[in-house]
Amino acid sequence: MSAAIFVLTIILVIWQPRGLDIGWSAALGAALSLLSGCVSLSDIPKVWSMVWNASATLIGLIVLTLTLDEAGLFRWAAIRICRAAGGSASRLFVCVILFGALLAALIANDGAVLILTPVVAAVLAELALPRQAVIAFVMAAGFIADTASLPFTTSNLVNIITADFFGAAFGQYAEAMAPAAAASVAASLGVLWLRYRRWLPRRYDAARLPEASSAVADPLVFRLGLAVLAALPALCFAAGAGGIPVCAVTGSAAALLLAASRRRRVVSISRVLRQAPWQIVIFSLGMYLVVFGLRNEGLTSGLTQALEALASLGTAPAVFGTGVLAAALSSVMNNLPAVMTGALSIESAGVPEAVRTAMFYANAIGCDLGPKITPIGSLATLLWLHVLAHKGLKVTWGMYIRTGIVLTAPVLLAALAALALTLG
């Protein structure tokens, strides 16, 4: 029964029939799980303890991101990057990828992909680049937003859930993931360059762009936002060392920027709050209750046995096996339920503690990168495709999957190899 409920819930989350967003789709699945007895009322506090910090952190980051977007920070940065590239399309391509990697690390993959894609598309339209070149840039922006979301717990909802699950502090997580994050960005830059270099023109006319300062709508929020983004990793590190939930940091940063926005009333606070993903709270609790039902009915036991077999071969096979399994699950069942499924299976596995920790990290890497193989792998990708369609840049599912497999596989293996060397 739990498997049928899970499949129905995933279909509704991806399909999103009119009037039924992702939150209510997951809530319907949770209700069916409760009514069928797959989960009990006593399971709700257990699941909530796993997801409340992740959900609150993501909402804080998205509110912060939307506020900075209204203030003009991201458009300002995009214009500055276009001018700094000096008219070289190849140099600009590399700069956009590195800028996307920085945003993914600081404001999470969801914020990066939803803000960077329309900003880059708008700026490139002003440069009058060929359509094929514009597609190359936005594909690169969408890809790097996920593949660069490894370094911090705040960089991806998957990371927060993973760190909370086995009690890793912000600094501990960042230290373990730093080599894998660097390898992922380097590999992403390489595969994206090889894939799209022929789509790029040699030169573009940077003189067509307005001055970067013209993009700044609210100077106070703009300056404060730059300071907040620069300080965010250090603040999260300090919070983790002091046992303070990371959502307290992101929530406080978002509140500070909203308070600053009231000074000149250029940034619309009401619009920012309306656009915040409040439904993610309902989605998190509902979706994970559905996954918990799979665990209660023993449907994750097969995965647990596979992980135990991998662990018996040593740390490196456990890392690669766990990461690849997590990536495959994410590509077909969405990365958020996949990370929960993997974490519950790892927790149940009878393996040495050091290997278990390595498997938790590998599970996060697989669930961060695996979603790039298919459009349904993550909600961010589905939203990204929706944004592109509104910009008149249609990317078919067939085109996406063909590209996703080629790009994702080497990046995933590079990141897992770096993790295996770090923890082995």
What characteristic shape results from the CA principal axes? globular
Mean pLDDT: 88
Q: Helical region count? A: 18
| Number of β-strand runs | 0
How much helix, percentage-wise, in residues?
over 70%
Bin the strand percentage: under 5%
N/C terminus separation? 40 Å
Biggest beta sheet attributes:
none
Rg result: 21 Å
Q: Which stretches of 5+ consecutive residues score pLDDT under 50?
A: none
Structural class: mainly alpha
What is the N-to-C order of secondary-structure elements (H for helix, E for strand)? HHHHHHHHHHHHHHHHHH
InterPro entries: Arsenical_pump_ArsB (IPR000802)
Function: Involved in arsenical resistance. Thought to form the channel of an arsenite pump.
Protein name: Arsenical pump membrane protein
Organism: Mesosutterella porci
Overview of this structure, please?
By secondary structure, the protein is mainly α. 78% of the residues lie in helices and 0% in strands. The protein is built from 18 helices and no strands. Helix 7 packs parallel to helix 15, helix 12 crosses helix 15 and helix 14 packs antiparallel against helix 15. The longest helix has 39 residues. The protein is globular, with a radius of gyration of 21 Å.
Per-chain topology:
Elements: H1 2-15, H2 22-36, H3 43-71, H4 73-84, H5 89-127, H6 131-147, H7 157-166, H8 170-196, H9 219-241, H10 246-264, H11 269-275, H12 279-296, H13 301-311, H14 315-333, H15 335-348, H16 353-369, H17 379-390, H18 397-423
Helix pairs in contact: 1-2, 1-12, 2-12, 3-5, 3-7, 3-9, 3-10, 3-11, 3-12, 4-5, 5-6, 5-17, 6-8, 7-15, 7-16, 8-18, 9-10, 12-15, 13-14, 13-15, 14-15, 14-16, 14-18, 15-16, 16-18
